[in-house]
Design goal:
Aspartate Aminotransferase, domain 1, alpha/beta, 14 helices, 2 domains, 4-stranded mixed sheet, binds 4'-deoxy-4'-aminopyridoxal-5'-phosphate, globular, Aspartate Aminotransferase, domain 2
């Protein structure tokens, strides 16, 4: 019987897979654009976009075509040799970020690691900090990934419990407060790493002027401003990068997720020569980073964002969606935080039940922390598709059912 197929897959995954996630009970077997299907053929709208890795939608034809064409030529060379896709791709990403140079990795957290390593090396070799004394300042509530260096930046008990000892030389300050950064700075401070909008924390938008003040503070104190745009980058917030909301240019861009169009893992950092030149042959790298398949896919993924005006679309549909959400009649709803199609809806109670009910209604989304639902559909969503979802969301989230 059809339903048993999904149940069986879930059972199998639970039996043989590690339990390091708590997924909604839905199995995705096919996908196209904003839509996904389970093995029984039930259709759902994806309102999570793989945590903003699918900004271009599922299986965008142009990106899939680039993948197929490249797969027929060469897929992996390692960096022991040059490959014909790496040059054009680094040039494209350099142009996009306005930076001199690009260093490719695969996942977001590897790009975070790369940025931290770049900052430390820069502190010793350019700033003149004494060996092993470099400090990094991070903002509480952050999510920079799951490696030991990244969780060393975190203050989330769920992400850090029993993983110590942690990487030393890290200071954690409140997000959104410039004064605490000023107090944390010492002559050994190498960098401040920050998400321009905190994603996993629940779409936390810092107070206006914060990013600009951090930028100024970093410049005044000869500290690198590292912007983790892994989740906010590539049009998600209604700008190509969320730092643009305050016209701020970081020293190091950290990118991932939608950089690979949801088709291939692609991440990178971009920075100017004075920083990137601290890397010398043998000092850092990755077997898969900058592979031809990744570069070809990422070039297509960037082109899709530009050709389909996804920055503008995210901004306009984000405003439309947010207006609709604000009209929901539910006095347990305590806050709506939004920039483009990057939206957090907070309640004064856990929202898992809502996510399950939305799934039953055909809309897939996920709680971030207990009390916030994140809505982040693929940016290729049409207004008609969004209207369809709004109707379902309105029904599920309204206290009195219309
Ligand atoms: N930085 C930020 C801001 C993120 O949101 C994430 C993933 N949610 C990461 C880094 C880590 O990316 P990945 O899971 O690809 O390692």
């Amino acid at each position: 019987m059809a339903i048993e197929k999904s149940d069986h897959i879930i059972e199998q995954t639970n039996a043989y897979g590690a339990h390091n996630y708590h997924p909604l009970p839905v199995v995705i077997a096919e996908a196209e654009g904003v839509w996904v299907k389970d093995p029984e053929g039930n259709k759902y709208m994806d309102m999570l976009s793989a945590y903003s890795a699918l900004n271009q939608g599922h299986r965008h034809p142009k990106i899939i075509q680039a993948l197929k064409e490249q797969a027929d030529k060469v897929t992996l060379t390692s960096r022991a040799f040059h490959n014909d896709q790496l040059g054009p791709w680094t040039k494209r990403v350099a142009e996009l970020t306005g930076k001199d140079k690009v260093l490719p990795m695969n996942t977001g957290v590897e790009a975070v690691e790369t940025a931290i390593k770049a900052a430390r090396r820069w502190a010793y070799e350019v700033k003149g900090v004494e060996e092993n004394k470099a400090e990094i300042i991070a903002a509480k509530g952050n999510f920079h990934g799951r490696t030991l260096n990244a969780v060393s930046l975190s203050n989330d008990p769920g992400a850090t419990k029993h993983y110590g000892p942690f990487v030393p030389g890290i200071k954690k300050v409140a997000y959104g407060n410039v004064e605490v950064i000023r107090e944390a700075i010492t002559p050994n401070t190498a960098a401040m790493i920050i998400e321009p909008i905190q994603g996993e924390a629940g779409i936390i938008i810092p107070p206006e002027g914060y990013l600009q003040a951090v930028r100024d503070l970093c410049t005044e104190n000869d500290i690198l401003f590292i912007a983790d745009e892994v989740q906010t980058g590539f049009a998600r917030t209604g700008k190509m990068f969320a730092c643009e909301w305050e016209n701020v240019v970081p020293d190091i861009y950290v990118m991932g997720k939608a950089m690979g169009g949801g088709v291939f893992p692609v991440s990178a950092i971009a920075a100017d020569k004075d920083i990137m030149d601290v890397f010398t042959p043998g000092s850092h790298g990755s077997t898969f980073g900058g592979n031809p398949l990744a570069c070809a896919v990422s070039l297509a993924a960037i082109e899709v964002i530009e050709e389909e005006n996804l920055v503008k679309k995210s901004l306009e549909l984000g405003e439309y969606f947010t207006t609709a959400l604000r009209a929901i009649d539910n006095d347990d709803l305590t806050a709506i935080r939004a920039r483009g199609l990057f939206i957090g809806v907070e309640f004064n109670h856990p929202v898992r039940k809502y996510c399950e009910q939305l799934k039953e209604a055909g809309v897939l989304c996920k709680e971030t922390h207990e009390n916030t639902i994140r809505f982040a559909p693929p940016l290729v969503i049409t207004k008609e598709e969004l209207d369809w979802a709004i109707e379902k969301i309105n029904y599920v989230l309204s206290k009195e059912k219309p």
